[in-house]
Design goal:
Helix 4 runs parallel beside helix 5 and helix 10 crosses helix 11. Helix 1 links the parallel strand 1 and strand 2. It is built from 13 helices and 11 strands.
Length: 375
């Protein structure tokens, strides 16, 4: 029996990092795991079931964007190197200044990538986003046209390109759709908080653009499984990978098979909350396209007050990371449309949650209730 791999997770208290750590812990997949994050576990809204996997002796507090942190992050007592490094770090908030993304995403990736190459890490996994593709309703494959449409994606793509130039780095790039699941605090969370307010206001929830706008998704459990499957595949010799046809750096889309659209989400939310949902006509959508800033401000003004009231009525004093605040970057009429077949064909991966459903969304809300985040 070969020794199990040792694992370093950068940004290990973030949403994906913590679920990956828990997946490894629960299934006893690694000989050693180190979780690195600039935030302490006590301040990371960490649900109790993650404490064993993410906190205690496994945890090292460090800022991976700073070069002087690298020895603390990578050095081990036995002098050996980590086998797998997962870079789940980087800035995940929208609408920040360019400098923030450069430092916290781009510089961080390059910093840990260079160090991983220097130390001969067997597999370095860089998490990226499907927002790097040119928006198109037809699903983008890994080698399709790139035209990033969020700031996060602009800097993630730069990181992908620079990491690919590092000699000796055993690099894999993973581009993710919208990740949802228990405790999620982005994308799906915003829609659910908005729906909760519309329910309280007894009004219809209307989306901009059309029901066909692609908003592809993937469940967090499948993301954790996929990340682990990819490292195993890579270190076992990259079977079925063809450099000439597929490129030098193995790159995989991780996206479920449900072809999630705004219409899918509207139907599910309507069912879960018992509210009527619909779409603004083309007139309002055209106006919104030209005046996106003011439209977003209006929606946020309309929702934030009632949301605060709901929290107060429910006696929630520490509301956690949830908010109905709508990010302008996420309200563009851009398709997030990805083809995930390469992961299945090359790595042999199977999705356990192939499409988003009413039940899976209800599970997300239940997790919020458990944390006392949900009014």
């Amino acid at each position: 029996m070969a020794e199990k791999p040792s694992v370093l997770i950068i940004g290990g208290l973030g949403y994906i990092g913590r679920f990956l750590a828990q997946h490894i812990h629960k299934n006893n997949l690694a000989s050693d795991v180190r979780i690195v994050d600039k935030v302490l576990p006590q301040l990371a809204w960490l649900p109790s079931e993650f404490e064993e996997a993410c906190a205690g002796a496994k945890f090292v507090q460090a800022d991976a964007s700073r070069e002087q942190s690298l020895p603390r992050i990578f050095d081990r007592a036995d002098g050996k190197q980590f086998d797998y490094v997962f870079n789940c770090g980087g800035e995940t908030r929208y609408s920040q200044e360019d400098e923030v993304y450069k430092l916290r995403s781009f510089d961080l990736s390059l910093n840990v990538g260079r160090e991983a190459a220097k130390r001969g890490v067997k597999c370095f996994v860089e998490l990226s986003t499907g927002m790097v593709y040119k928006p198109d309703s037809a699903p983008s494959k890994e080698q399709d046209k790139l035209k990033p449409w969020s700031k996060i994606a602009v800097f993630k793509l730069q990181a992908e390109e620079e990491l690919a130039k590092i000699d000796g780095l055993n690099l894999v790039i993973v581009r993710l759709a919208h990740v949802y699941g228990p405790y999620a605090s982005q994308w799906v969370a915003t829609a659910l908080c908005m729906a909760r307010v519309y329910k309280a206001l007894e009004s219809e929830m209307k989306w901009l653009w059309t029901k066909d706008l692609r908003q592809n998704t993937v469940h967090i459990d499948d993301v954790s499984r996929a990340l682990w499957a990819i490292t195993g595949w890579y270190t076992a010799g990259k079977v079925k990978w063809d450099d000439a046809k597929m490129g030098k750096v193995p790159t995989f889309n991780v996206v479920d098979k449900g072809v999630t659209t705004q219409g899918t989400m509207a139907d599910i939310i309507g069912e879960v909350f018992g509210i009527s949902t619909g779409f603004q006509g083309s007139l309002i959508s055209t106006f919104a396209k030209l005046n996106l800033d003011s439209v977003v401000d209006d929606v946020n003004d309309e929702l934030l007050g009632p949301w605060a009231d709901l929290l107060a009525e429910a006696g929630i004093t520490r509301p956690g990371p949830l908010t109905p605040f709508m990010e302008k970057e996420l309200l563009k009429d851009t398709d997030l449309s990805m083809d995930g077949s390469r992961l299945e064909e090359v790595v042999g991966f199977t999705y356990e949650k192939p499409k988003i459903s009413k039940e899976l969304v209800e599970e997300v809300i239940e997790s919020y209730k458990k944390m006392k985040w949900w009014p």
